[in-house]
Task: structure prediction
Amino acid sequence: MIVPAAALHAPSSAGLPALVLRPWQEEDVPALVEACADPAMRRWIHHRADDEAEGLRWLAEQRRGWTSGVRFAFAVLEEGAPAPRRLLGNAVLKLPRPDAPSAEVGYWTTAHARGRGTATRALDTLTAWAFDTFAASGLARLDLFHQLPNEASCRVAEKSGYPLHTTVPASPPAYPAPGHLHVRRAAALDLAVPAPRTDCR
Result:
């Protein structure tokens, strides 16, 4: 399935600015490198861009994902801000194959965007787009993983309708700590996912 590059929009809410999610562009690389220098980012993500060359390689990987139809990464920016708009984060949909019944979502936010509802609104927007775009291909479930100590990601997941389902073991070196699996379904289907729990501790 060929998916055209798209810009997604999250409206303003409770005094928070509207967001635009669009495919990554070369102009975003300096802000990406700056974001990856943040200690909190370096703790939780394992694909980093420490300089412009690495940023360009990362950008090329995201473009290949769109072309192959298995990885759709969006830069999250503030809508309506004067150019160049400030980078707020990343939101990504990862499909194991174009016709898979389940997929994985992920996100991160820059240091200056945290605590402003950016991750929740970006994830909400990505989720709606994923189910709408891939419904005809049979997409019925979205999975979200985070390492156990990352309590902020746990809160974002639950606010966005991804209840906790199970704890998964560590998988070093990429995931040195155990993690949580959160699941959101497009319909009431049982795709061999454990019964949900009601807390995130």
